[in-house]
Amino acid sequence: MLVGLQDSTFGMAWGNKIVTTGLLVALLSLAVTLFCVRKEVFEQSFSLYPAHSAKEMENLLHLVRNIVPPLTPEKYKGQDGKIGIIGGCQEYTGAPYFAAIAALKVGADLAHVFCTKDAAPVIKSYSPELIVHPVLDHPSAVEEVENWLPRLHSLVVGPGLGREDAILKHAKGILEKAIMKGIPIVIDADGLWLIAQQPFIIQGYRKAILTPNMVEFNRLYEAVIQNPVDSSNHHGCVLRLSQAMGNLTVVQKGEQDLISDGEKVLVCSHEGSRRRCGGQGDLLSGSLGVFAHWAFLAGPEKTNSASPSLVAAFGACSLTRQCNNQAFQKYGRSTTTTDMISEIGTAFTKLFES
């Protein structure tokens, strides 16, 4: 009887052990599955995205080529782009000129510069190609620019804007009017300073593209996210900032340009040069104003359903780097942004028309 009891107890213990083991295996399997799912989600959002392969880069450039409007004799002046530049003050006259002339060189038909009264004669003296409006420091600046918005295809806000309170207030009002009209907007330089102070101005507007350099990005990120940038995961930080801003497009300029719409991160590693002269960001913002107009006009069938802002940003980043590379081959250490502007035509042809 005692032996039977011992056998029965042993059997029960052994059965319990099997059940326990099975339960542990099941729990372990579930844990591994959950880990893999979370790992996949994490990698999609915050992994260190590698630079695109040559084939991927070519596919992206192909999408940019799709949005470039053909040159035909049937067109009339203005159809390929009328771009407005909001910026230019007494201290900074070169930046709005660079942005506006780059827009024309890329293929816009008209470029308007809305600047302060003191800046206007200087900017006009740089080129007769530009239409210059000395209204940005006028009390009715917002209304003056608003009258022109129906005739503009995109705005570039920030080059040479300065940080005077009255001017920034006018820039804010202009941004609000442009958003109401659904105009694509590129924000750079001191326009980004304004957004860092008041992110709500542009938050959630999917036709906006921010183009910060490293310093501007850190300032904007800390203002919006309330945490310092994670220097070990720049890709994740660009993605997170875009998401926090309502999935508008962010272009972080640097050794590689990181472009995100909050859903994916593109890496533009097109070869440039080691020369970092001032004004290259203005060339980028001006050309991006044109590409943005073309991309939104082209529609999803031309961008393969990709975000128009992503396609436009990749095109502008690639072009700026190609101009930098070509100018550097000629001038080396003495390369300036003026030299880069001279390369826009051949660089554009090489990337998008050959």
Any key phrases for this structure?
globular, nine-stranded mixed beta sheet, alpha/beta, 354 residues
List the helices and strands and how they pair.
Layout: H1 2-46, H2 54-67, E1 82-86, H3 94-106, E2 110-115, H4 119-126, E3 131-134, H5 141-146, E4 154-157, H6 165-180, E5 185-187, H7 190-197, E6 208-210, H8 214-225, H9 234-244, E7 249-252, E8 257-260, E9 265-268, H10 280-298, H11 300-303, H12 308-331, H13 337-342, H14 344-353
Parallel strand pairs: 1-2, 1-4, 2-3, 4-5, 5-6, 6-7
Antiparallel strand pairs: 7-8, 8-9
Helix pairs in contact: 2-12, 3-10, 7-8, 8-9, 10-12, 12-14
Describe the overall structure:
- The protein starts with a helix and ends with a helix.
- It contains 14 helices and nine strands.
- With 354 residues, the chain is an alpha/beta fold.
- Helix 4 links the parallel strand 2 (110-115) and strand 3.
- The model is unreliable at 1-49 (pLDDT under 50).
- Helix 3 (94-106) packs across helix 10 (280-298) and helix 7 packs parallel to helix 8 (214-225).
- Strands 3-2-1-4-5-6-7-8-9 form a nine-stranded mixed sheet, sandwiched between helices.
- The chain has helices at residues 2-46, 54-67, 94-106, 119-126, 141-146, 165-180, 190-197, 214-225, 234-244, 280-298, 300-303, 308-331, 337-342, 344-353; strands spanning 82-86, 110-115, 131-134, 154-157, 185-187, 208-210, 249-252, 257-260, 265-268.
